[in-house]
Amino acid sequence: MPARAERHGNGKRSSVRQPSLPDLPESLTAGRLPGDDLTDGAVHLALAFDGADFSGRSAAGAELDQCTYRNVDLSQAALRRAMIRDVSFDRCDLANLRARDSSAYRASFAGCRMTGMSWLNGGMRDVTFSDCRMDFASFRASTFKDVVFTGCRLDQAEFGDADLSGARFEDCDLSGAQFSDARMTGTRLTRCELTGISGVTSLRGAVITSAGAVALAFTLANALGITIADDDDPA
């Protein structure tokens, strides 16, 4: 995937690598239940699911490889040590899905409902989230490399102790998000809503566009005990 040039305030350009898209075969086999259910050790290989219901499933060591999931219900599911590779999720319901020690590589999530989803102590590489509802989601202690969030609702999301140095947020609502002890050197936040975020000092080394910086200034001042007064306020 070609890199995109991005100009910083010092006038220099740096290349920003775009996430690789899922590598999908030209033809997929229709996935059907119960034969292709999501259970311990399940392997979904080159399957296309449309409207399947996996809600509430519990699966350890599942592998989802070169598959598409469209209008699929994964809400309340629990995954442990799952491997998601070359997979696309389109308008799926992942609300309150719980994933632990899992990894995603070359995956895309578009228009998905992910309220309250947790992805703990996991890894993501070459992953895109587009127009997803992700409020109250948790990515605690997870690592992101070449991951892009675009147009996502991430208010009250938690990124505590996560490595976000390889993540970008574009046109996202991050109001009230938690970043305590996150590593964010190189993280890019473009045209994002940053009002009321917690762990603001963890943003050291991040790149933030001017619109977000204005709101961030008040949050940072509050964290440092600084009072911002109007010029005409009495001393």
Q: Let me know the largest β-sheet.
A: 11 strands, parallel
Level of helix content?
under 10%
Global morphology = elongated
- Going by helix content, strand content and strand pairing, the class is mainly beta
Secondary-structure element pattern, one letter each: EEEEEEEEEEEEEEEEEH
Q: Which residue ranges are poorly predicted, with pLDDT under 50 across at least 5 consecutive positions?
A: 5-15
N→C terminal distance: 56 Å
Number of helices: 1
Average predicted local confidence, pLDDT? 89
Strand content: 35-45%
Our Rg estimate from Cα atoms comes to 19 Å
Number of strands: 17
Give a verbal description of the structure:
The protein is mainly beta and 235 residues long. Helices cover 6% and strands 36% of the residues. The strands form three sheets. Strands 3, 4, 5, 7, 9, 11, 13, 14, 15, 16 and 17 form an eleven-stranded parallel β-sheet that branches. A four-stranded parallel β-sheet has the order 6-8-10-12, with no helix packed on it. It has a two-stranded antiparallel sheet with strand order 1-2. A hairpin with a 5-residue loop joins strand 1 and strand 2. 40% of the residues are buried. The model is unreliable at 5-15 (pLDDT under 50).
Q: Mind sketching the topology for me?
A:
Elements: E1 3-7, E2 13-17, E3 29-30, E4 43-45, E5 47-50, E6 58-60, E7 63-70, E8 78-80, E9 83-90, E10 98-100, E11 103-110, E12 118-120, E13 123-130, E14 143-150, E15 163-170, E16 188-190, E17 207-208, H1 210-223
Parallel strand pairs: 3-5, 4-7, 5-7, 6-8, 7-9, 8-10, 9-11, 10-12, 11-13, 13-14, 14-15, 15-16, 16-17
Antiparallel strand pairs: 1-2
